[in-house]
Amino acid sequence: MKKLLSVSYSAWAFNIAMLLLRLGAGALMIPHGYDKLVHFAERKNNFISFLGMGSTLSLTLDIFAEFFCASFIILGLFTRFAALPLVIAMSVALFKAGNGDFFGKGADAALFLSCYCALLLCGPGDISADRIINK
Question: Among 31, 63, 26, which Cα is nearest to 44's?
């Protein structure tokens, strides 16, 4: 019981937590990106135009973030660089598409945003391709 109430943690626990966060946030994001990739032709004219870039470019960047960057996050490869497009994409999804509704329409985007912000700040942990490359 004393260990459950402790505020200290080990490096091992941190690395396992980062692995679980990466696997969960990445694996749950990939289906969103894959669906947009498969139905690109149908969605390219109806997608939200962010910063006047046009709907096709906005959709392309969103697919890059949600499918390819999420795949990099699962592997732990270029994790902080991969998290940045996802933070931007989830911010747009939350504040522009979801109208900043944290507990309603934008709840999923808010949850993903918090996960990717944590990965951006903390990094991938030791159980990652980044760690193997940087040894």
Answer: 63
Q: How far apart are CA 97 and CA 49, in angstroms?
A: 10
The two tokens of residue 60 are 């392309």
How many residues does the structure list for the chain? 135
Quick one: CA torsion of 69, 78, 82, 21, rounded to 10 degrees? 90
**Helix-helix angle 11-38:55-63, to 10 degrees:** 140
Counting Cα atoms < 13 Å in the Cβ hemisphere of 88 gives 14
The span from the CA of 84 to the CA of 93, in Å, is 14
Q: Which residue has the higher pLDDT, 53 or 6?
A: 53
Higher pLDDT, 22 or 135: 22
What CA–CA distance (Å, rounded) separates 65 from 76? 15
Q: What is the pTM of this model?
A: 0.89
Model confidence at 60, pLDDT cuts 50, 70, 90, reads: very high
Residue tagged 């509704």 (tokens)? 101
Q: What are the angstrom distances between the C-alpha of 60 and each of 14, 64, 103, 105, 132?
A: 34, 6, 27, 23, 30
